Amino acid sequence: MPDEKQQQRPMSGRTKVILLVGAAILLIVGLIWLVSYQTSGRYRQSTNDAEMRADSVAIAPKTTGYVTQVLVADNQDVSAGQLLVTIDQRDYLAKVDEAESQIAVSQASAAGARSSLEEQYASIRQSRVQMEQAKVKAAHDAGEVARYAPLVSAGAETEEKLAQLRQTASESNDDVKVKDASLLAQQRHLASLEAQIRQNEAQTRSAQAKLASAQTDLDSSTIRAPFDGRVGDKTVAVGQFAQPGTRLLSIVPLKELYVVANFKETQIGLMRPGQPATIKVDALSGVKLQGHVVSVSPGTGAQFSILPPQNATGNFTKVVQRVPVKIAFDAGPEARKLLIPGLSVSATVDTILEKHTREAIKQEQIDQSKSMRSAPR
Question: What's the CATH code of the domain at 115?
Fold first, then answer.
C-alpha cells in the first residue's frame, strides 16, 4: 500500500491565492456588515406581524320598514353620497303631510287670533272715546243741576225742570259706569286673545318639531354612502324587513388604508411618530411601499384584549409583549387596486434619527453612576 504522506499533495500556489482572496473577501464583507449594522442597521426595526387595516363602517338603517331598492352590488366601488338602499317611505310621507297640515291649521288659527286682536284694539279705542264723551255729558248734566238749583229756590224755575235735570244727570252717571265696565271687559278679552295667539304659536312650534322629526325619518329611509369606498359583506335584499341598528352592508375606505405593525416591546424604545418606514406586501412580491409612523399604541395588545393578563396571580412566565404601531404608506392607484384590509405585510421602521436619545440615556446613566460614587458617605 502506498504511504499516506505520499498520497497528500501540497496545495498549489494558485489554490492558496484563491483561498486567501476568498478569506479576505469574507473578512471585508463581514467588516462592511458590522460597520453598517453599528451605524444604521441596528436602528432599523422590522416585523412580519403586521397587516393592512381600514376604518370600515357598517351601514345600518335608522328607521323601520321593508327594503324597496338595493342599488349596489357586492364589491362595488361607491362614492360619498351615493344612494345605496331605500326603505318603504309611505308611512314617513304620511307623517310629513300630517305635520305640515298641523302647521297650517295652527298658523291659520294664530292669524285669526291676531285679526281678532286688532279688532279688539279698535273696539277698545272706540269704547274709550265713548266713555270720555259719556263723562263730558255727565259733567255737563251735573253742572246744569247745580245751575238750576238756586233758580228753583228763588222761584225762577219750576221744581219739575230741576227734577228732570237731576234725572238726566243720574242717567249720564249710569252711562259712564256702563261704558267703564264695557271697557274693562274688552281689555280683559284682549288678554284672552293674546293668550290664544301664544297658544297657537306654541302649537305651530310643536307641529314644526314633528315635521322636522318626520322629515328626518323620511330622509333616513334613503341610505347613502358616508364616504368613498367599496361595498363589502352585503346581506341586504329587496323585500327584507330592516330594523334600526341591523347591519345591511359595510363600506371599506380603500383610499384610507394603513398598516398596523405589532413590534416587540424591545423594538419600540426609539420609535417615534414621523419616522420613515418601508412596507413589503405579501400580495405584491418585490414591491416596496414607503410610509411613516403615525402613532404608537398607548398599551400593548394584551392590555386591550377581552381578558387582559393578571401577572400578579398564579405562576408568572415572562412573554415578550407586542405593541401596535400605526403606519401610513404611499401607493399609486395601480397598487391600491390590489390592496385590501387583512393582507399580511412586513414593516421596517428606521429609528436612526433617535439614536441621540439612546446615547443621551447612556450618558445620563454614566453621570448618575459617577455622582453616586463621588457622593460622601
Answer: 1.10.287.620
